Amino acid sequence: MANKILVVEDDLIFRETLGLVLQAEGYDVAFCGDGAQAIDTFNRVQPDLVLLDVMLPGMSGDEICRELRTFSDAPIVMLSAKDESDDKVAGLEAGADDYIAKTADEKEILLRLRARLRPIRVSEQSEGVVKIGPLVLDTVGHEVRRGDERISLTPLEFSLLLILAENPREVFSREKLLDKVWGYHYKADTRLVNVHVQRLRSKIEDDPDDPKIVTTVRGVGYKAGNG
Question: Is 35 within 8 Å of 63 (Cβ atoms)?
């Protein structure tokens, strides 16, 4: 069964061109050109992934992303004609999994979408349960618990935490995390990792400003802490 992709984009020419590319790859594509209608369209279509323009009439892409994150963990990839750092960070902080400039070529866009739609990688040694500090990761149910409390993570956040939990002695550079979690085998903006680590910490740490579960190794990257 084909993955469903919702494209929320008000530029008709770009929307139709992107739609043809996605349909040629076998995706089931739905469209919405108005930010104010995006949430209703999402609920009707129930897509596996959302391609979301930043600048939209009625409601901005960042606003839509924040609203979707209140009830859905579907992958969200932001699209923008601008490639400025502040715009990227704002979209990621709103809950997006990735950010693509509209100037990106078709191959790069398709590679990133495939990476977001792939299943979470789980090692054969996990046996269904992995621990990191006070957290227990259920790799079958894709759940994270602290005691009786269930912590809601997006699939990408779960994958990021799982990579660290499965390799408690390893320090991961940002570039290696981009490869392992996002599937980037080429140079990309490492701030993507930084923002997602901050989002993850806000959900799992008692004090995100003094993290114990996902710690920073200055000048190198991130590792699993003792909790």
Answer: yes
